[in-house]
Amino acid sequence: MATITLTISALPAHVRTARLMAATVARRAGIAASAIDEIRLAVGEACSRAVAAHKLHCPTQPILLQLIDGSGPDPVSDPRTDTSSRTLRANGSATRRFEVVVSDRAPAKDTDETANHLEPLLDGLFLDGEDTPPGGISGFSPGLGLAVITGLADEVSIDPKDSGTVVRMSWPLQADQTQNPSSN
């Protein structure tokens, strides 16, 4: 398993770079061609949400993107590596996965200073006001992006905390690619 780590600044222009990297690594890992656009869109949504949260709370802090290629051999010698989320057992067979983790450092809830202007970042899909929230579409909260992600990724885990939010998304690899990844 290989992990590629990308650190981006909280700038919208860097979301495109994250999408391109995710699509490239997913393709190389052996993701089905039909899922590449879904990965690109899900990563774009997760990174856009993180950029919007950082602009509001911590604009100088970087956003961490991890692309985990589950097509290679399992790391055996490193006890710190947790492969349970990457190798799932279904009907007795192992399913290898491509995983993307987007970690930000913005608190999951708005501070008192901004709470009067916006709903909490993860609550609800609609806002009452006419203003466009950071990272949202006019009339929709940034939480809509998280709803889109859950519809695009095969498995999603969203872990909001005061120290930041971790969005973990994964997709299964094609069966023939897990046995011979060099057959492209």
From TrEMBL:
InterPro entries in alphabetical order: Anti-sigma-factor_SerPK (IPR050267), HATPase_C_sf (IPR036890), HATPase_dom (IPR003594)
Pfam families: HATPase_c_2 (PF13581)
Residues covered by region (Disordered): 69-90
GO molecular function (one): protein serine/threonine kinase activity
Superkingdom in the source lineage: Bacteria
Residue ranges annotated for the Histidine kinase/HSP90-like ATPase domain, each copy included: 8-171
Keyword line: Kinase, Serine/threonine-protein kinase, Transferase
UniProt keyword Transmembrane helix, yes or no: no
Annotated protein name in UniProt: Anti-sigma regulatory factor (Ser/Thr protein kinase)
Record organism: Nocardiopsis metallicus
